[in-house]
Amino acid sequence: MNTAIKVIHTLKAAGFEAYIVGGAVRDLLLGKTPHDVDVASSALPQQVKVLFDRTVDTGIDHGTVLVLLDGEGIEVTTFRTESSYSDNRRPDSVEFVLSLEEDLRRRDFTINAMAMTEDLKIIDPFGGKEDLKNKVIRAVGDPDERFEEDALRMLRAIRFSGQLDFIIDMKTLLSIRRHARLIRFIAVERLKSEIDKIFVNPSMQKSMAYLKDSVLTRFLPVGGLFEVDWITYHTDGNPTYGWLYLLHQQKRQFTDIKDYRFSNEEKRLIEKSLELTALNTWDQWTFYKYTLKQLEMASRVTGKKKDLAAIKRQLPIQSRSELAVDGWDLIEWSGAKSGPWLKVWIEKIERLIVYGILKNDKELIKDWFEDEYHSHT
Ligand code: ATP
Ligand code: MG
Fold it and tell me: What are the tRNA nucleotidyltransferase/poly(A) polymerase RNA and SrmB- binding domain coordinates in residue numbering (predicted)?
């Protein structure tokens, strides 16, 4: 906040207008700490850049420059409008405009369309404050037009309803129902990012009810899958858990949701956790083979509660690298050449140690190995 105000001071001293805008104003009025603060200004990107020592061109074509100051990053965006939308998903071009009000008009919801001056005065041309008070999400202007311009806004309305625990204004909601099919034109990355945010909302059940009620579930990729019972869902702050919960409830596999383009890390976490939910018993080998995160996700979703970290910690070893022997030892003891047999024998030893049958001690392993190996060959 203080950094943003410093940025505004600098811009104003150079003769430009500048305000805090969007989500930060909303969050401040709600008494929450905004996680990022955006500034809108009459200065053009090039004019912003000369005023600050350190800037990054994060979205210069859209008029945005990131100003780095006091260890913070403040996005400064030139007042702009998004002129025409021919495909319901992105403006054909952005146009810089002269007034703050025009800039606020292009924003999605009244609660996101307020600005604040450096001396904390609120500029609220669309009744955002009133809607905040009444806990309502309402499109700025004509909802039909707004959703035709950018259909993602429909999903954003639903996301904010859960994030803030607000209702969606009836006219706005009816418009979403009428335009739901337009969601098909939105890039899947943008959809996933909003769905991920829904999954970590405290009132996500509200978003999920709206998602169904708005008929968006009919038009989202595998949208029907979202229509599960979310009553037992509690977020742990990690969106991946939402996807796991959904697959587990629906008895589906990761491939069913792969259209949402997960990172390799997310994919692995979901697949491994699902695998765990399908196991009847978890023994030492399970705790050894799966990461704590995978175990935790799976146990949350199945409702098995245990001190998983403690069980994992008590294993004789945590990974193969802790084994007291390696392939070279086995080669030496057997007198045989390296080959696929090594992997088999290392895993045999690893299992015995993990199960506590054999101690992780080089001499003891050697005794066992020499006995077993020679009786096998
Ligand atoms: P949060 O960061 O808490 O998710 P936010 O309101 O800051 O919420 P962002 O997605 O960061 O949301 O967007 C910042 C601001 O930009 C919004 O408050 C809104 O004014 C505007 N905005 C963002 N996306 C759109 C959109 N698709 N259509 C219109 N305005 C938008
Ligand atoms: Mg934001």
Answer: 165-220
φ and ψ at residue 5, rounded to 5 degrees: -65, -35
What is the DSSP code string of 292-310? Answer: HHHHHHHHHHHT----HHH
| Substitution site in 36, 112, 126 for ligand 1 pocket (most atoms within 8 Å of beta carbon) | 112
Does residue 269 fall inside a structural domain? Answer: yes
- Write the residue with the smallest CA distance to atom 2 of ligand 1: 23
Rounded distance from Cα 23 to ligand 2 centre (Å) = 5
Question: Quick check: 48 and 76 in contact, CB under 8 A?
Answer: yes
Is residue 21 helix, strand or coil? Answer: strand
- Residue 168 DSSP code: E
CATH code of residue 140: 1.10.110.30
Count of structural domains within the chain:
4
Task: Give this prediction's pTM.
Answer: 0.91
The atom of ligand 1 lying closest to the CA of 22 is 18
CATH number at residue 328: 1.10.246.80
Containing structural domain, residue 38: 1-128
From 197, 220, 243, the end of a domain falls on 220
Statement to judge: residues 159 and 141 lie in one domain: yes
pLDDT tens digits in sequence order for the chain, 377 residues long? 899 999 999 999 999 999 999 999 999 999 999 989 999 999 999 999 999 999 999 988 889 999 999 999 999 999 987 755 666 665 566 777 779 999 999 999 999 999 999 999 999 999 999 999 999 999 999 999 999 999 999 999 999 999 999 999 999 999 999 999 999 999 999 999 999 999 999 999 999 999 999 999 999 999 999 999 999 999 999 999 999 999 999 999 999 999 999 999 999 999 999 999 999 999 999 999 999 999 999 999 998 878 999 999 999 999 999 999 999 999 999 999 999 999 999 999 999 999 999 999 999 999 999 999 988 77
CATH number at residue 30: 3.30.460.10
Nearest of 92, 77, 78, 75 to residue 37 by alpha carbon: 75
122 and 142 inside one domain: no
CA of 47 to the centre of ligand 1 (A): 24
CA distance 311 to 294: 14
In a domain, 80, yes or no: yes
- Position 157 in a domain: yes
Return the ligand number nearest the Cα of 193. Answer: 1
